[in-house]
C-alpha cells in the first residue's frame, strides 16, 4: 500500500490532524480526524449500526477542498490515469 498525501488541516495547531490521503493501489480515500463524541455517534447510529471494524470521524469544513482533491485523485486512479 502506498499512500499519496493530499493535505492536513491548515488550522491544526500541532500539524498532526486531521489529514487526508489516497491509497495509490486501491484508490481508497483515507482520512484521519477527530473521534466522534457520544452525541455525534448517537446521531449517526440513528441511520443504522456501525460495525466494530469501522468508526466515525469528524473532518472540518475548511478541509472540503482537500477532500475534493482526494476524490478527484481516487477517480483518476480508478480510471487508470
Task: Give your account of this protein's structure.
The chain has 2 helices and 5 strands. The protein is an alpha+beta fold and about 80 residues long. It has a 3-stranded antiparallel beta sheet with strand order 1-2-3, covered by helices on one side. The protein has a two-stranded antiparallel sheet with strand order 4-5. The chain is globular and about 40 Å long. The mean pLDDT is about 90.
Which helices and strands occur, and which strands form pairs?
Layout: E1 3-8, E2 19-23, E3 29-32, E4 34-35, H1 38-45, E5 57-58, H2 64-78
Antiparallel strand pairs: 1-2, 2-3, 4-5
In short:
The chain has 81 residues and is of the alpha+beta class. The protein has one domain (3-78).
Number of domains: 1
- Which stretches are poorly predicted, pLDDT < 50 over at least 5 residues? none
Number of helical stretches of at least 4 residues: 2
| Largest sheet report | 3 strands, antiparallel
Strand segment tally = 5
Cα separation of the termini? 18 Å
Radius of gyration: 14 Å
Counting helices, strands and paired strands, the structural category is: alpha+beta
Q: Looking at the structure, what is the overall shape? A: globular
Major β-sheet strand ordering: 1-2-3
**pLDDT averaged residue by residue:** 91
Query: Hey, roughly how much beta strand do the residues contain?
Result: 15-25%
Q: Summarize the amount of helix as a percent range.
A: 25-40%
Order of helices and strands: EEEEHEH
Amino acid at each position: 500500500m502506498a499512500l499519496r498525501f493530499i493535505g492536513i488541516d491548515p488550522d491544526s495547531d500541532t500539524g498532526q490532524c486531521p489529514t487526508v490521503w489516497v491509497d495509490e493501489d486501491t484508490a481508497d480515500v483515507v482520512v484521519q480526524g477527530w473521534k466522534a463524541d457520544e452525541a455525534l455517534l448517537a446521531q449517526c447510529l440513528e441511520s443504522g449500526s456501525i460495525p466494530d471494524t469501522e468508526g466515525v470521524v469528524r473532518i472540518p469544513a475548511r478541509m472540503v477542498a482537500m477532500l475534493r482533491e482526494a476524490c478527484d485523485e481516487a477517480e483518476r486512479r480508478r480510471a487508470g490515469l
